[in-house]
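Annex B. Sample input.
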Amino acid sequence: MGIASNLFFQYVEDFFNYRQAVYESSPQTIKSNRVDLGLFEDFIGSQDVRSIDGPAIIDFQYYLKKERQNCGSSINRKIFTLRSYGNYLKLYDAPGADELPFYDVLKIRNGYRKRPGALTPAQINLLFKEIDCRIILGIRDYAVCALMYQLGLRVGEVHSLNLENIDFESNTIHVTGKGNKPRTLHVNNELVEILSQYLAVRDRFYNSWLTQALFISKKGCRLSIRTMEDNFKKIVNYSSVHAQFNITCHTLRHSMASHLNNNNVDVLVIQSILGHASTRSTEPYIHPSLEKIRKAMEKLPGVKYVKELIRKGELDLRFQKRSKPKRE
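Annex B, continued. Sample output.
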């Protein structure tokens, strides 16, 4: 059964208006949902599917897995978008919406995901040294990276910052995170100096007085997320930093959380700084150093007990047993 495909896509704009007005979904979420629904619409059109039913969804999953080479989590996200849209159609009493099959689709198990990597403090220093602060664009990019590392900001959060978000009197910065959740973070003296240096040259950017955006492009527009990511990639490529993982802007956020953890900062504090709703979201960001792991293992009762016996001479350890004399 299901719902006629020509009717299914008639409510897309109403759905996004509803999500934005009532649920205040972030622009990035709306953008991702648009991509997902657009991809599904293109697939349905290319296959000349007349009804959105179970077989159509199964074929769409095969298409995502086999032709687009999507991983399980990516396929799950697209199905979740369709499920959310299906819920809206039910609320809207669209004909046939009650028979949509999205809730019958099983979630794909992904196995264990590899934890995103974090850089060492020495590697972070090498990256920042690569930024040329003798030029205006370098001063800007240095401030962008400093916010992502020292405050653990997402690239999208840096992108949305305005001049009014910085309060130098109280040394605070007001950030809007995912789901439009606000948080206020302390700005230390080093970061105050970095931001002050950038603001001193900000008016040199084209049409800088026409925008309240904190960071501006060469064309006088708000600095885009894509440009920040591309500039950071160039910094990484020019540097001598090498890692077993892909180094991105988000790596700075992971590195900051890991360095705080290695300095014994409480996980609840790290959670608050990162703007997470729960510590479960914070845990993947924490990468204990090998030195911290070693010290933790040394505190095991059994280890301490054996070491004490050796120190007192009560335990005489050998690499192997003494060989027994051969019998004649």
